[in-house]
Design brief:
Aspartate Aminotransferase, domain 2; 15 helices; 3-stranded antiparallel β-sheet; alpha/beta; 7-stranded mixed β-sheet; 2 domains; transaminase activity; transferase
């Protein structure tokens, strides 16, 4: 390729990257400029692995040979945009989220997509349409077919009796609420005097609907949440003005553990509600039983715990025995302890399309959540609620979860094995013991690939989808100045898809690294 053609290809690649960056929500549009600033002050001709790459929290890479301002554009071309051997392609023009030529009275045109939706929209501009030729490692859903040995057969049809054609109560049908309560009592509370009843259960049409109901009933308080965490929290926390959300960044140096001294400090400054996912999305880690027990003791009389436990059954620390971890085990009195637990069929039963989920908590909270459902979402699908009852028999669940854990641990180990051979480092601290996510640190990679947007960009050209790490910076209302904790050098990889999709995804990532000459075995 002539130098002129090479320059044109690289210039096109600059334009492509900048167009991709332009579609980000406003608070994240610093990504490209931050990357430019970082790379322009680093020796960009060194294409090997940099031992001094550090994370954004610790600071950007230490300059070895600072370059002059005059060479800035040249180095941008050489690092941000170098195709490294891949074929040029037409620059996809991102579609505007809203048509500015049309007047839209009273509409909020500044709303942005959540992380998973954004990456899907961008992939669609590169030709993605859910076809098998792509590896979607960005979607936060498990494989949903009859693909897991020992798992029950996915329902092909469900009965629709006459009584299920009526509106279901906004708290859910009593039979399913009783089944949920019985499951939690049998699984986590056999040695407890206080038991859940159907009055402690509210059935909701999905996890987001459950979070929205919870947000609507809490008021006049500080609500703390941790970073990084589930991207959809951002929208839920920004829409409601009846409480003040306070982000609490966790430390990368100890793998984002939620230490009790952090929570104690939050309580001391007046926080009376705390929201967290456990196991955690995106890091794939969960609190230990001892940590959970101490957390409940610390918060019992002072703070509402909102525990998102959708990944509680993707738990690998107990030899894949089918056991799980839940705050329900550490609640002393189900009607006194201020603890709300969210879970559902979405993840554990691999039925995300059913939108059947639940919230457990004290009766008074459940009554308020039921009332909120009457004006927020109207309640869950009645026929699916009736069909879900039999799934929750405790022995059935244990058997199902054992099959699930064995299968997903195998997939986790496959992905970690492939990435390890590509040069990524894994140890006890960053190997997920739950969920089906890897929080992958890109900082050892050279130049463009060390930035999550650059890595995402190159993966698109290999038909692989990942989620850039900065989407897990939950900054509702964009009030907090959190530039220093934006995870430019992380991506979330899901090993939820079927194994052949994971193989395809790992092959694509390997091709990206090979093009940039940073595979240890090439």
């Amino acid at each position: 390729m002539s130098s002129q053609n090479s320059y044109e290809t690289d210039s096109e690649n600059v334009s492509e990257f900048e167009r991709l960056e332009s579609t980000l929500p406003e608070p994240l549009k610093r990504s490209a400029s931050s990357l430019i600033q970082t790379l322009s002050s680093t020796n960009l001709n060194s294409m090997g692995r940099e031992s001094d790459y550090r994370t954004p929290r610790e600071g950007y890479p230490t300059p070895r040979n600072p370059v002059s301002v005059q060479n800035r554009n040249k180095h941008l071309i050489n690092t941000l945009s170098d195709t490294k051997g891949r074929e040029s392609s037409p620059v996809p023009v991102p579609k505007p989220r809203f048509n500015e030529a049309i007047n839209k009275p009273a509409m909020n045109t500044k709303q942005s997509s959540t992380g998973v939706l954004w990456v899907t929209e961008r992939a669609a501009e590169y030709g993605f349409n859910n076809q098998d030729s792509w590896a979607n490692l960005g979607q936060g859903a498990p494989e949903h077919g009859d693909t897991i040995p020992g798992s029950f057969e996915r329902p092909k049809s469900i009965p629709v009796p006459d009584h299920s054609k009526e509106y279901a109560p906004t708290a859910g049908i009593k039979e399913l609420r009783e089944a949920v309560a019985n499951y939690y009592n049998e699984t986590y509370r056999q040695d407890k005097a206080s038991k859940y009843t159907y009055k402690n259960v509210c059935i909701v049409p999905g996890g987001r609907a459950g979070l929205t109901r919870i947000a609507s009933i809490i008021s006049d308080c500080y609500l703390s949440f941790f970073l990084p965490d589930y991207t959809a929290y951002a929208e839920m926390l920004s829409l409601f003005k009846n409480f003040s959300p306070i982000p609490v960044p966790l430390s990368e140096s100890d793998n984002y553990d939620v230490h009790l001294d952090i929570i104690r400090n939050e309580l001391m400054r007046g926080v009376s509600a705390l929201l967290t996912s456990n196991p955690r999305n995106p890091t794939g880690k969960c609190m230990s039983p001892d940590q959970l027990s101490k957390l409940h003791t610390l918060c019992r009389e002072r703070c509402l715990l909102i525990m998102d436990e959708f990944y509680s059954h993707y738990y690998y620390d107990d030899n894949c025995s089918g056991s799980s971890i839940s705050s329900a085990q550490y609640v002393e009195d189900v009607n006194v302890d201020p603890v709300l637990i969210l879970n559902g069929l979405t993840k554990a039963f691999r039925l995300p399309g059913w939108r059947i989920c639940w919230i457990l908590g004290p009766e008074e909270y459940i009554g308020a959540l039921s009332s909120a459902g009457s004006y927020l979402d109207g309640g869950s699908n009645a026929p699916f609620q009736y069909a879900a009852i039999d799934f929750l028999k405790p022995q059935f669940v244990r058997k199902e979860m054992k099959a699930l854990q064995l299968h997903f641990k195998m997939k986790r180990d496959y992905v970690i094995g492939r990435l390890s051979r590509m040069g990524f480092t894994f140890h006890e601290g960053n190997i997920p013991n739950s969920t089906f996510y890897l929080w992958l640190n890109l900082s050892p990679l050279p130049n463009k690939l060390s930035n999550c947007l650059g890595f995402f960009h190159e993966c698109l050209h290999e038909r692989v989808i990942v989620v850039p790490g900065f989407f897990f910076l939950i900054n509702p209302q964009n009030l907090s100045k959190l530039e220093d904790v934006i995870w430019y050098n992380y991506v979330r990889i899901s090993y939820g898809p079927e194994l052949h999709q994971l193989e395809k995804g790992m092959d694509g990532i390997e091709r990206v690294l090979r093009r940039f000459n940073c595979l240890p075995y090439d």
